[in-house]
């Protein structure tokens, strides 16, 4: 697997570590591809538990804008679509998925967290969805389904940063735990996962996490991203005030 993503393969759990700490684990194309291929490989191996965390100072800073000047609008659109496909693959996974997050997290990085079934953060974790500033509708329904329409509207329309305490109150995360506790949490997740048979767990997840919105999510994303002037909107967002 690519060095931008480390995977610890256990018998009953695979632990994915985003490994671009120098870029705050931003979602460069090679990281998105590595995550997609890694999740698909776990599905092929019938791995019942997948854990996601990030190296360095944070979990994930979202979309990687470092090559904005050289990328075409078509390139950007394709990359955004690949991220949505990744999110859908994760959100509809037949495995239990757990996000262990810390630090400052943005946009599609928060969408990865929201696509996991269990979400745990350290007390210093912050979250922000800036994509609406350049007209991008990515992962919105998943976030809405977790936190409710009013909370989603407030956070997404204001693009404000919110902290772990608020995330816990609205249900984006379920626990606040520090990294020294994560190994015990992983072991607990493995034990809890063994309670149900693979067939029962898969059937339960099909009911609780249906894939009926997948096409709608992708269509909404494409409509928002395909509007002319995407690069200029992103540049305006990135421009220092």
From TrEMBL:
<dbReference type="Pfam" id="PF00378">
    <property type="entry name" value="ECH_1"/>
</dbReference>
<dbReference type="InterPro" id="IPR001753">
    <property type="entry name" value="Enoyl-CoA_hydra/iso"/>
</dbReference>
<comment type="similarity">
    <text>Belongs to the enoyl-CoA hydratase/isomerase family.</text>
</comment>
<dbReference type="GO" id="GO:0003824">
    <property type="term" value="F:catalytic activity"/>
</dbReference>
<dbReference type="InterPro" id="IPR029045">
    <property type="entry name" value="ClpP/crotonase-like_dom_sf"/>
</dbReference>
<protein>
    <submittedName>
        <fullName>Enoyl-CoA hydratase</fullName>
    </submittedName>
</protein>
<dbReference type="InterPro" id="IPR051683">
    <property type="entry name" value="Enoyl-CoA_Hydratase/Isomerase"/>
</dbReference>
């Amino acid at each position: 697997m690519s060095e931008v993503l480390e995977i610890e393969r256990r018998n009953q759990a695979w632990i994915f570590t985003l490994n671009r700490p120098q870029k705050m684990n931003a979602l460069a194309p090679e990281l998105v591809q590595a995550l997609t291929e890694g999740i698909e490989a776990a599905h092929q191996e019938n791995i019942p538990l997948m854990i996601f965390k990030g190296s360095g100072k944070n979990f994930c800073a979202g979309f990687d804008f470092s090559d904005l000047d050289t990328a075409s609008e078509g390139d950007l659109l394709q990359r955004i679509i690949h991220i949505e496909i990744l999110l859908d693959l994760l959100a509809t996974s037949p495995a239990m998925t757990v996000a262990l997050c810390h630090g400052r997290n943005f946009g599609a990085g928060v969408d990865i967290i929201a696509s996991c079934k269990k979400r745990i953060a350290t007390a210093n974790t912050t979250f922000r969805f800036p994509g609406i500033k350049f007209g991008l509708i990515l992962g919105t329904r998943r976030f809405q389904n977790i936190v409710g329409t009013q909370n989603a509207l407030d956070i997404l329309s204001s693009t404000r940063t919110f902290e772990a305490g608020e995330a816990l109150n609205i249900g984006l995360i379920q626990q606040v735990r520090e990294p020294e506790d994560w190994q015990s949490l992983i072991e607990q997740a493995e034990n809890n996962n063994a309670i149900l048979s693979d067939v029962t767990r898969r059937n339960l997840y099909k009911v609780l996490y249906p894939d009926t919105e997948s096409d709608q999510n992708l269509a909404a994303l494409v409509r928002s991203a395909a509007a002319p002037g995407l690069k200029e909107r992103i540049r305006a967002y990135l421009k220092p005030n």
